């Protein structure tokens, strides 16, 4: 647990070259019935603003679109990365990986088939178009496991071989088959910003890529890092097993952020 091991984070806390990278939903924002209902509470926003003033880099790496991530936080000085690393905001401009652009027509075709198919007839289903990805949420469906199997079966029938099907917490997602994930974008962020220390926080299957990348970079002596999982009833044991530390909930993330900014040698 993080709060029983705060001494392990002292060197991170006192190094201005530390980078803080975090997921949004389930990490700094409590899981909500629908994506539009999720919010980042003012106290956590305030703690993140303090991190921005203290450390070399603060980044959010989300499964949401990059514009949506920015809307939720609306904090200057943050690096916003959306759709698991496929797009990001830099100097106020949105950048998309070139290989992603090539596959967008096929993604659009698949989305149209989904919108006109059996998935839409499932009570409680929610479709979310995110520009370069497409999410199918089944959190509000009566039988979530049965619904998940139906969704996966329907996507197999699309025969879109050039698209990738992935899963998260109560959602299935259709993505371009680009070798970008939260791990690869974390490595790019570390390299581009010459970070010497990095803390990554997440709560979902997609965050495991980032957890594992931190361990790889540490083993290669490229960075001093720590992976922190945010617990909840929905977080699979698999995610927890790949983290170095954990906190009990989103509120504890805010407390940890505040601790990082207090009583520091570097003001």
Q: Give the full name of the CATH homologous superfamily of the largest domain.
A: HAD superfamily/HAD-like
Q: Give the DSSP E fraction (strand runs of 2 or more residues).
A: 15-25%
Sequence stretches where pLDDT stays below 50 over 5 or more residues: none
Q: CATH first level of the largest domain: which class?
A: Alpha Beta
Distance between the termini: 27 Å
The secondary-structure element order is HEHEHEEEHEEHEEHEHEHEH
Q: How would you describe the shape?
A: globular
Structural class computed from helices and strand pairing: alpha/beta
CATH architecture field of the largest domain: 3-Layer(aba) Sandwich
Strand numbers in spatial order across the main sheet: 5-4-3-2-1-10-11-12
Structurally, the number of domains stands at 2
What's the CATH topology name of the largest domain?
A: Rossmann fold
Strand and helix map with partners:
Elements: H1 10-13, E1 18-22, H2 42-54, E2 57-61, H3 66-73, E3 79-82, E4 87-90, E5 93-96, H4 98-115, E6 126-129, E7 134-137, H5 144-157, E8 164-168, E9 171-175, H6 182-192, E10 197-202, H7 208-219, E11 224-230, H8 237-241, E12 245-247, H9 250-261
Pick out its properties.
267 residues, Rossmann fold, Alpha-Beta Plaits, 2 domains, 8-stranded mixed sheet, 4-stranded antiparallel sheet, 9 helices, globular
Description:
With about 270 residues, the protein is an alpha/beta fold. It has helices spanning about 10-15, 40-55, 65-75, 100-115, 145-155, 180-190, 210-220, 235-240, 250-260, and strands at about 20, 55-60, 80, 85-90, 95, 125-130, 135, 165-170, 170-175, 195-200, 225-230, 245. It has 2 domains: about 1-95 and about 180-260, HAD superfamily/HAD-like (Rossmann fold); about 100-175, Alpha-Beta Plaits. The protein is built from 9 helices and 12 strands. Strands 5-4-3-2-1-10-11-12 form an 8-stranded mixed beta sheet, sandwiched between helices. Helix 2 runs parallel beside helix 9 (about 250-260) and helix 6 crosses helix 7 (about 210-220). The longest helix is centred in the middle third of the chain and has 18 residues, at about 100-115. The chain is globular and about 55 Å long. The mean pLDDT is about 90.
């Amino acid at each position: 647990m993080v709060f029983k091991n705060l001494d392990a984070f002292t060197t991170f806390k006192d190094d201005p070259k530390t980078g803080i990278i975090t997921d949004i939903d389930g990490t700094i924002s409590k899981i909500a019935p629908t994506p539009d209902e999720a919010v980042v509470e003012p106290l956590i926003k305030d703690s993140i603003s303090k991190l921005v003033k203290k450390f070399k880099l603060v980044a959010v790496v989300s499964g949401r679109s990059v514009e949506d991530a920015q809307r939720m936080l609306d904090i200057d000085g943050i690096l916003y990365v959306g759709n698991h690393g496929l797009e990001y905001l830099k100097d106020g401009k949105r950048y998309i990986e070139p290989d992603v652009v090539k596959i967008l027509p096929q993604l659009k075709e698949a989305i149209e088939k989904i919108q006109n198919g059996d998935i839409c007839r499932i009570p409680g289903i929610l479709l979310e178009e995110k520009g370069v990805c497409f999410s199918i949420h089944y959190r509000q469906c009566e039988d979530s496991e049965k619904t998940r199997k139906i969704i996966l079966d329907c996507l197999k029938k699309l025969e879109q071989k050039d698209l990738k099907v992935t899963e998260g917490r109560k959602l299935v997602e259709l993505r371009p088959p680009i070798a970008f994930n939260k791990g690869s974008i974390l490595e790019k962020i570390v390299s581009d910003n010459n970070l010497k220390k990095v803390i990554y926080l997440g709560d979902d299957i997609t965050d495991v890529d980032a957890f594992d990348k931190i361990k790889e970079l540490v083993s290669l002596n490229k960075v001093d890092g720590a992976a922190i999982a945010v617990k909840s009833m929905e977080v699979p044991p698999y995610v927890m097993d790949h983290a170095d530390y954990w906190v009990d909930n989103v509120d504890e993330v805010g407390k940890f952020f505040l601790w990082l900014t207090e009583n520091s040698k570097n003001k």
